[in-house]
């Protein structure tokens, strides 16, 4: 990386990195991993392929930084202290994100590669952690530690199946029923 005096990053390099990472993230969310090539990212960002390759020698390097940006930009609803209401908000936000159809393409590429690529496994884990942070936080605030992970798996799994596999909506009635079934009594 080109540095100026005092070890500060050259603003041109910082701008290039920012533009390319944003273009990579957009490509991942719109078209998936397979379409997020150096050539496509260079086209979207307005830089040469050589510039992209100079900073990100492999597609995993490019995707890793894009996923970092996606995870950093993730937001989760504020909690109010009521378990059921907070779960409704957190699960509703997750369902909304999944229903957009952008994350299924992203996750499909990551999951496909995770079986044989340690870097992709790390990305899969980071995406899961980011996607479930809101729900996990609500559960951790209200449940015994041993109950958090099983409830998280049931709740998130049901929302994922409803929105992604079934193509349905996780509306308020669905979430109310799901929460009632999943919470330990």
TrEMBL record:
Superkingdom of origin organism: Bacteria
Entry-linked InterPro entries: Homeodomain-like_sf, HTH-type_TetR-like_transc_reg, HTH_TetR, Tet_transcr_reg_TetR-rel_C_sf, TetR_C
Signal peptide: none
DNA-binding region coordinates: 37-56
Gene Ontology molecular function: DNA-binding transcription factor activity; transcription cis-regulatory region binding
Keywords annotated in UniProt: DNA-binding, Transcription, Transcription regulation
Sequence ranges assigned to domain HTH tetR-type in this UniProt record: 14-74
Gene3D superfamilies per the UniProt record, alphabetical: Tetracycline Repressor, domain 2 (1.10.357.10)
Pfam families: TetR_C_11 (PF16859), TetR_N (PF00440)
Name of the protein described by the UniProt record: Transcriptional regulator, TetR family
Organism this protein belongs to: Streptomyces zhaozhouensis
